[in-house]
Design a protein that fits this description.
Strand order of the largest sheet: 6-7-8-3-9-10
Structural class: alpha/beta
Mean pLDDT: 93
Number of helices: 7
Bound molecules: adenosine-5'-diphosphate, magnesium ion
Shape: globular
Strand content: 25-35%
Radius of gyration: 18 Å
Length: 247
């Protein structure tokens, strides 16, 4: 891994830990309690889902974990570090070097080819071009898109675009991937295939995956499911046979 920091912990501790987390938006003089007193741990090496209807606070929660938004109250720990005590520069470094992102709308640059899109975060890290190209090739092969390397997003199907986004996370070798409704724009069959690839990401690449979604397929596949309603965590379900420390 190319980041220079050894100050993150990776095992025997939750990869994400939220405690007493609140995010209140003020909109036209009204308080919107988007995240209301959420406390939960996400354990490494698992597929964890946060589920709930539209408006239940899932995206807000993900933004807080990514350090893209600041809690009104409470703490967010990621990879053993308290985001609230990190500088903006350190949070940027965390996002760039340790986190991967997968979005409902794929989040690819329209004018760049599949391989160029995969290379964007590696360029931002200043990775040596030879190493970068090798990582891109490997990631493209891993998602089965070697033949599509030079296609732009509009020349790819939705499922293929999402596989490019997954390849980008693979090439980044990140510890934690945050996914916001990754199957939200895909039909059931394509969604299933993307989900199978996300499962392989966890099993083969050792990535910890946190998905926020309202897709029942994802809920059925996830190892741990946290359910939110109106900003609150109302239930946590753990699949049979999945070991979760501390529970
Ligand atoms: P979900 O992702 O589960 O659909 P969100 O986290 O996007 O839910 O939104 C939770 C609540 O917070 C909703 O009521 C939404 O309208 C509100 N909300 C989200 N972002 C903002 C914002 N930037 N300003 C004001 N209200 C917001
Ligand atoms: Mg959302």
């Amino acid at each position: 891994m190319s980041n220079g920091s050894n100050s993150y912990s990776t095992s025997l501790e939750p990869i994400v830990s939220l405690s007493g987390l609140h995010r209140i938006y003020q909109l036209a003089g009204e308080d919107i309690h988007a995240v209301n007193n959420v406390t939960l741990d996400v354990w490494p090496g698992q597929m964890t889902a946060v589920v709930g209807r539209s408006g239940s606070g899932k995206t807000t929660l993900l933004n807080l974990i990514a350090g893209l938004d600041t809690p009104t109250e409470g703490e967010v720990w990621v990879l053993g570090r308290n985001l609230g005590q990190m500088s903006e520069r350190e949070r940027l470094d965390l996002r760039l070097n340790r986190l991967g992102f997968i979005f409902q709308s794929f989040g690819l640059m329209p004018l760049l080819s599949a391989r160029e899109n995969i290379g964007v975060p590696l360029r931002m890290r200043g990775m040596d071009p030879k190493e970068r190209e090798a990582q891109i090739d490997e990631a493209l092969a891993w998602v089965g898109l070697t033949e599509r390397a030079h296609h732009r997003p509009y020349e790819l199907s939705g499922g293929e675009q999402q596989r490019v986004a997954i390849a980008r996370a693979v090439a980044e070798t990140c510890a934690l991937v945050l996914a916001d409704e990754p199957t939200g724009q895909l039909d059931t069959r394509t969604g299933r295939r993307v989900l199978d690839l996300l499962r392989r990401l966890v099993e083969e690449k050792g990535v910890s995956l946190l998905i926020v979604t309202h897709d029942p397929q994802v809920m059925a596949e996830a190892d741990v499911v946290h359910e939110m309603r109106d900003g609150q965590l109302i239930e946590t379900r753990i699949k049979n046979g999945v070991a979760v420390p501390g529970l």
